């Protein structure tokens, strides 16, 4: 079943075509990587999916329903969760409270919230001191905290924008294991610059270039694709 799709999805900023006529399909259960050179339109595209950015034209469908103009919070209610390149944690709140705020969208009762918050923190490896302020975490760990905030909502679709930025090699290895574990229950769309992550965790890869889909296929196919290589070298 297709969980998420777009048809003719476009967004222009003052004449600049950031996303242009994109037809995209993401089957339920897949881990999909979205890659492309800087400025290719990846963040704009996921902003359109999440409802952070309004489309210039085209449609977005989730679970068979058109959501093109649904506000972001309603899309979260349907089962979409996302983390962005710019961290959105509340710096003065504790790790626990940050995740609890997200958990309370779905759960009622302190015991249920606490259990789910601790489980989400454990999945991303942040259980050591849940009472410390989120603002004291490194940038990379704030990204992991955001993933915990997404996970606690038990989403059907988890969208992650550059989740491994700022993580150490050991933490990246932990992230790969986490994605593999989550993929049993959650569809994942991942914007990722780290090719080892893409090669190891993605079922399929969509390559954006100049706001359009340049190619789509398995990680190995995309790695070997001459058009994709040219786009990364800036000659495509
Ligand atoms: N709010 C905005 N106003 C004007 N132009 C924008 C805006 N947001 C994005 N753009 C432009 O749209 C194009 C696509 O940007 P976008 O951030 O989506 O690319 P990206 O693939 O996510 O890049 P990166 O890998 O560098 O994050 C770029 O040319 C960018 O400058």
TrEMBL record:
Keyword flag Nucleotide-binding: yes
Keyword Cell inner membrane belongs to the record: no
GO cellular component, one term: plasma membrane
Keywords of the record: ATP-binding, Nucleotide-binding, Transport
ABC transporter domain sequence ranges: 4-235
SUPFAM superfamilies found in the cross-reference section: P-loop containing nucleoside triphosphate hydrolases
Tree of life domain: Bacteria
One Pfam family matching this protein: BCA_ABC_TP_C
One GO molecular-function entry: ATP binding
InterPro entries recorded: AAA+_ATPase, ABC_AA/LPS_Transport, ABC_transporter-like_ATP-bd, BCA_ABC_TP_C, P-loop_NTPase
Protein name from the UniProt record: ABC transporter ATP-binding protein
């Amino acid at each position: 079943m297709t969980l998420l799709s777009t048809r003719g999805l476009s967004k222009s900023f003052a004449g600049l075509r950031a996303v242009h006529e994109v037809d995209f399909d993401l089957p339920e259960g897949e881990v999909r990587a979205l890659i492309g050179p800087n400025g290719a339109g990846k963040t704009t595209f996921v902003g359109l999916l999440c409802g952070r950015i309004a489309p210039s034209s085209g449609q977005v469908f989730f679970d068979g329903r058109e959501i093109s103009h649904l506000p972001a919070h309603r899309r979260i209610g349907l089962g979409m969760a996302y983390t962005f390149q710019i961290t959105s944690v509340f710096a003065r709140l504790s790790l626990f409270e940050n995740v609890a705020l997200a958990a309370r969208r779905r759960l009622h009762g302190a015991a249920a919230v606490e259990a789910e918050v601790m489980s989400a923190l454990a999945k991303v490896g942040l259980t050591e001191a849940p009472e410390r302020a989120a603002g004291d975490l490194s940038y990379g760990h704030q990204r992991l905290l955001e993933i915990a905030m997404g996970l606690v909502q038990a989403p059907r679709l988890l969208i992650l924008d550059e989740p491994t930025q700022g993580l150490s090699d050991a933490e990246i290895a932990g992230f790969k294991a986490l994605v593999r574990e989550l993929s049993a229950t959650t569809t994942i769309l991942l914007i990722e610059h780290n090719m080892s992550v893409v090669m190891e965790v993605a079922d399929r890869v969509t390559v954006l270039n100049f706001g359009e889909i340049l190619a789509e296929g398995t990680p190995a196919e995309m790695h070997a694709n001459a058009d994709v290589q040219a786009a990364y070298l800036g000659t495509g």
